[in-house]
Amino acid sequence: MASRTYAPRMAPEDRRAQLLDAVLRIVVEQGIHKVSMDSVARAAGVTRPVVYTHFTDTDDLLRSSLDREEDLARQQLSPILPLRPSGDPVADVLRYLSGFLQAVGAAPDRWRAAFALVDSETPYFRRRLERWRREFITAFADFLRATIDTRAIDIPMTARTLDTLVWNAGRLTLAEPTEFPPSRILAHHAALIRTLLGAN
Q1: Which in 23, 108, 123, 189 has the greatest CB count within 10 A?
Q2: How many other β-carbons are positioned within 10 Å of the β-carbon of residue 166?
Q3: Residue 100 contacts by C-beta under 8 Å, 6 or more apart in sequence?
Q4: Strand, helix or coil at 96?
Q5: C-alpha distances in angstroms, 74 versus 43, 49, 57, 66?
Q6: What 3-state class would DSSP assign to 51?
Q7: In whole angstroms, what is the distance from residue 143 CA to residue 137 CA?
């Protein structure tokens, strides 16, 4: 009888990170509904008891994964948030868009998972993402109030439109990177942003 193969020993924090990496990989490649204690164990090459050592159940796995990826995404976006007015609002928004696309390109699986949560059938995850999106909208609104005559444009609508423009640009460049690289998106969106902000 062949001896049983055991996963190499790891420090607890390294094992936890390995398991969360497996969760992210499953979400991106198979969908959030495919995450389970069994599927994560298989993807990480460990036994179920190893997974249960670090997480209580599938919900704990998913919530912990979301916590980690959101924290890392916030770190990625910290250089461009909050938006800082320079006197040229169009250039400021384009700089933000460029930074966002760089973040997406640097960690594509993290952002694929985030974009997928928009369509999640799990209320908790959808609400969590919607709450995060509201932070972006608030950042845009605060920026617009600080830089543009509030009588000239509808601030709440413009903030939401900019957020949608940026968010969908990230989805587009991931879905079709050859056809829609960041350079093409930035060149095209410059005119849209100028129009939205009422700039000449």
Answers
A1: 23
A2: 20
A3: 77, 80, 166, 169, 170
A4: helix
A5: 27, 32, 26, 12
A6: helix
A7: 10
Mean pLDDT of the chain: 92
- CA atoms of 72 and 156, how far apart (whole Å): 28
pLDDT (tens digit per residue) in 49-64:
999 999 999 999 999 9
Amino acid at site 58: T
Which two structure tokens, joined as six digits, stand for 190? 């410059």
Q: Ramachandran region of residue 154, left (φ > 0), alpha (ψ -120 to 50) or beta?
A: beta
Output the pTM of the full model. Answer: 0.89
Mark out the alpha helices in the chain (DSSP H runs): 12-30, 37-44, 48-54, 58-77, 89-106, 108-117, 123-147, 155-175, 182-196
Residue type, 131: R
pLDDT tens-digit profile of 85-125?
999 999 999 999 999 999 999 999 999 999 988 777 778 88
Q: CA-CA distance, 184 to 70, in Å (whole number)? A: 27
